[in-house]
Automatic annotation (TrEMBL), chain A:
Membrane-crossing residue ranges in chain numbering: 21-43, 55-80, 87-107, 113-135, 147-168, 188-214, 253-271, 291-313, 325-343, 349-373, 385-404, 424-443
Keyword Hydrolase among UniProt keywords: no
Main location group: membrane
Record's GO cellular component terms: plasma membrane
Pfam families: MFS_1 (PF07690)
InterPro entries cross-referenced by the UniProt entry: MFS, MFS_dom, MFS_trans_sf, Proton-linked_MCT
Name of protein: MFS transporter
Membrane topology category: Multi-pass membrane protein
Matches recorded under SUPFAM superfamilies: MFS general substrate transporter
MF terms in GO: transmembrane transporter activity
KW ATP-binding (keyword) present: no
Family annotation (Gene3D superfamilies): MFS general substrate transporter like domains (1.20.1250.20)
Boundaries of every Major facilitator superfamily (MFS) profile domain copy: 1-448
Amino acid sequence: MAVPSFLARERIIARPGFNRWLIPPAALAVHLCIGQAYATSVYKAALVSHFDSSLTAIGIIFSIAIVMLGLSAAVFGTWVDRNGPRAAMFTAACFWSAGFLVGALGISTEQLWLVYLGYGVLGGIGLGIGYISPVSTLIKWFPDRPGLATGMAIMGFGGGALIASPLSRQLMNWYDPTYDGTIGTTPTGAAVAQLFVTLGIVYLAFMMFGAFIIRVPAPDWRPDGFDPSTVKAKSLVTTENVSANNAIKTPQFWLLWTVLFCNVTAGIGILEQAAPMIQDFFRNGETSAVAAATAAGFVGLLSLFNMGGRFVWSSTSDYIGRKPIYMVYLGVGLVLYVLLATVGSTATWVFVILAAIIISFYGGGFATVPAYLRDLFGTYQVGAIHGRLLTAWAAAGIAGPLIINGVLDARGTPGQLTAGDYRPALFIMVGLLAVGFVANLLIKPVAEKWFEPKDTDAPTTASTTGDRSLSR
Amino acid sequence: MSTSQRTGDQQATTHTPTGLVAFAWALVGVPLAYGLYNTVKAASALFGG
């Protein structure tokens, strides 16, 4: 599928002297917008009331979006690699914005299916393309610090929710002055529809800014003082290239898929239930020692550690290596989960510290995986490979809530659960982390038979000299 | 445009204005700071009792 010339990869090849520090804000401009996907709880109650529906029916909007994220990243990954980041960001901006506008129409006309189609399907496609759009470009601009570069962008996805939550509350307060953002007040459906229109327009402008400042490096570009042979010297790091179609035939891809799936599922186990969980852990009969406002503060703290972990741990992986950092995420995470299940209810500060570190590992797992893929499969089609790997996220998005909600449903009713009721779910997560830890240990360098011919370079070269990926 | 012409174009050097880099970072940094401030404020309830 051809793209208009102003979006084409060859139009955005940077000339010598271009400042690569313009690329992270371009990536952040996209990720800060699509990160709104984690702030849907702000208007969830309003939509339940507006559509006279259930929490489950409204929750499906977010579920569709996450499933579409995984599917679109997998399906369009090769297209993104072939056409470059500007075409991908432009497309993501159109889908993401259209998702909000169609969703607003659905709210205004009280047609829930339109919200499913808009925010869920169209928005989800925007999420998937947007999420992977800057990743391979950042890896190519920062071959010396790929973990730092992708950590910065994917940190933006976590940061997007931090911005969207208070911004949405403020905007809905403007559109419906009876809503003040405190617990117990709910904005009208009309206010949510106006919020969707506003976000759709603002996000479109913001993401377009990113699309038009993004550049790809010339094929032979290297950062000053960077010697690729120093990277190759680390174990598991290849200077060869593997295509996306071949990557999914390797055990390394599926082992890494398992690692991501286990890490994300375990993290979602806490994130999904964060506010009620801290109250239940310190429940005494009908009341909890933790107030609702304090529980909301706990959710905020987790958001900070989720975002910070993406940047800090991913940057750390540049120094200690990708496999060791995942041993930390999964191995130390496993121990912390055991501690959470056994001594987490002894004191609030113990619970908070354990949960915060676990969530920082959850974020770190997301942010480090593109650099791990680069190490194993090279830069040739790393965006497309990353897209296919994100199906693990979609699967974890289903498995995580199913595990935690399934266990809690079997143990009692919300509002009466205690720490002991969470233990079976937490130990299931411990088992999952053990599986992920073993999968990570089993990852070895990719066999030579999967390498592309020596003249194959990054898609920058492929697209300017006749697309090799099309001929395969 | 042929590949050779493009290659020729790429040889010309460029200079990215520092102001553009600063503006781009400010554009993403200011909203992020707003989000961080509000989240820290919310999280402070955890420590304030």
